[in-house]
Write a structure and sequence with these properties.
seven-stranded mixed sheet, alpha+beta, single chain
């Protein structure tokens, strides 16, 4: 399975949950779990999981639409958050080509599901923190969601610095 899971088991942080285990844990609504989904070849599996979890069909549809707007919507049992991740496009000859993409968060009382179409540095940052300090999940899945959003905002600053350098270069060239 292309999903990564982080489950607060009684004795340790488990990262090896199967599709069925993920569904059982979330439906049990007792322990904290974070499921990270990278949409690539596993779109059908993601939709199946989302349906089994009872996620609203419009939210599932949004995760498949890269043009979904940034938003926060409240549904029964969870918040649905859409934010934009951004980076410079490294595969183009222009040094300041910019690209952005959506990061989706389903935040429930005991679960967090993050969905993205490509690798997210913000998610990777939080995964590294969780690997070093698994007790972070004890603070709640809303705290993990906050950590992802915080890492996302922090990732904007180097982009802004680079844009500032570019503007300074243009300004110097003009004068």
């Amino acid at each position: 399975m292309a999903f990564r899971s982080f489950f607060q088991a009684p004795d340790r942080l488990r990262t090896d949950l199967s599709h069925e285990d993920i569904v059982d844990v979330i439906h049990a609504d007792e322990n904290r779990i974070w499921v990270d989904v990278t949409l690539n070849s596993n779109t059908a599996e993601w939709i199946t999981l989302g349906q089994e979890l009872g996620l609203h069909p419009l939210t599932l549809e949004d995760t498949l639409n890269s043009d979904s707007r940034i938003k926060v919507e409240e549904y029964e049992g969870f918040l649905f958050v859409v934010v934009r991740d951004a980076e410079f496009a490294l595969d183009t000859p222009e040094p300041y080509d910019f690209e952005s993409y959506n990061l989706y968060l389903f935040i429930g009382p005991h679960f967090l599901i993050s969905v993205h179409g490509r690798r997210s540095e913000a998610v990777e940052t939080v995964i590294k923190r969780l690997e070093v300090a698994p007790e972070l999940i004890d603070r709640g899945t809303d705290y993990i969601a906050y950590q992802i959003l915080d890492a996302l905002v922090d990732s904007y600053f180097p982009l802004l610095d680079k844009i500032d350098e570019f503007v300074d270069e243009l300004e110097s060239g003009v004068f």
